[in-house]
Amino acid sequence: MMDLALRFSLLLASGAAFAPLHISRHHSQQQQVRQPSHVAGPLPMSSTAVDAPPPMAPYTLWGDKISDIRKLQEEMKKQPLPEFAPEISAKSLGLALGDVEAQLKYFEEHAMELKTKMQEHGAVVFRDFDLMKTQEGFQQFYKAVGMKPCLDPLHSVSARPTVDGTKNSPVYEAVNKESRKNFFIGMHNEFVGTRAPRAAAFVCFKAAETGGEFIIADGRRMFRDLDPNLVEELYNRQIRYSVMELPFFGWVENLPEMVQEPVMGVIKGIVSAAINAKVDFDVELLWGKGGYDNTRMLQARAPRQPPIVVHPVTKDPTWFCNVHSHSSKLRKDREAIYGAERFEDGASQINKSDMFFGDDGQISDEQLAHMDEITRKNSRYVKMKEGDVVLLDNYKTMHGRNVFDGTRKHGVAWFEGWEGEEQMKETMNMAQLQEA
Question: What angle do the packed helices 111-121 and 100-109 form, to 10 degrees?
Fold first, then answer.
């Protein structure tokens, strides 16, 4: 039983939005990305670039409690919001095709400007840059901008595959598996338990032949557009994710009735201890029934949390909630359109999620439908081609992925922060004091 519980704990991932959970022995099978012959090679990198692992993802910054969420939303509705995710093209900048040195120099010279733009607009889309067509060039890009890489937030509970198969590589696969091509990845902020990257850069090394668009959504506009009554109820009751289901305990019902409760208590205690020893946040296990045969299962639920947070730098209120990716109802609705995911192993029975109010109350179908509608209203499909990058603020911008056909090779790097972040905070604080 303990070995089984430990295996279960490896699959626990509350905010990963169905990220593929692969063990490192599969890394050697990852496809290498070839560099087009007309593009100059990336500048040489130190051989120690991926020898030492990056630091852990930082702890989630929930911010101060909002005293009157309805009033804050009313104020947000009156304010003009900046353009979401503006695009910057190497062509429009006059940078020559294949001149990766000039492109790298551009990022070095405009680093603070680009990071400020990411903060103000939630994301920046970079187009037509040859530099980022390779993993080395991609890493040179984000280092030039001054981003500080960190480990995948899944690191404590699982191992997401890396693009090049290197154990300590900071560039991870971005859900490219063929078996998941018809699985629409709902919009979400990246966080697992208590940890959330401050920012991320998503890169395209090879676009899918059809579909596979990277999708982004503006958290500020989400907060602004949601029904005020629902916002107030969600914020006051908070939310809670079911992060895993263990549907392997139907045999308990075959035991004599008088011993079922004691056996269930022992099972729950063993599995709970194993899981909570593995992760750095408290997980509560609840008995229930599920599946087509209504079998007895244990459901793991993460701690309660607010669905709206105050941004750690700009102080903007922003939607920070993974209902679109984690709701079982919304996921099933999408499966009716795109078809069910073709799972390759038994993890599909465990890695299931759902969302509830923080007091474990059910969120109604009408409320879920409204959140789905507002999410889709504020989402933008970004058809990326080789070398394109989306640099985003993980607190202000949600992300997802469309279904696809063909071969897709996208990567992602997570960031604990960036050079000049404290300077940004000081500038923002000064501006707010002057306005007051």
Answer: 70
List the one residue out of 188, 233, 243 whose CA is nearest residue 361.
233
Q: Which two tokens stand for residue 23?
A: 């063990």
Report the C-alpha gap between 317 and 5 in whole angstroms: 39
Output the 3-class SS for 241-293: EEEEEECCCHHHHHCCHHHHHHHHHHHHHHHHHHHHHHCCCCCEEEEEEECCC
Considering only CA atoms, which of 206, 218, 212, 203 is closest in space to residue 413?
203
| Both tokens assigned to 124 | 């920046």
Residues 283, 243 contacting (CB under 8 angstroms): yes
Give residue for tokens 């709206």: 308
The pLDDT > 90 percentage for the chain reads: 55
DSSP lists the bridge partners of residue 397 as 218
Phi, psi of 118 (to 5 degrees): -60, -45
* List of residues 6+ apart from 209 with CB closer than 8 A: 404, 405, 406, 407
C-alpha Rg value of the chain to the nearest Å: 22
Three-state secondary structure call for residue 89: strand
pLDDT at res. 13: 36
Nearest to 225 by CA among 163, 159, 138, 318: 318
Q: Could you read off the pLDDT of 107-162 as tens digits, one per residue?
A: 999 999 999 999 999 999 999 999 999 999 999 999 999 999 999 987 766 668 88
Residue 98, Ramachandran bin (φ over 0: left; ψ between -120 and 50: alpha; else beta): left
Q: Is the dihedral of CA 347, 7, 287, 369 positive or negative?
A: negative
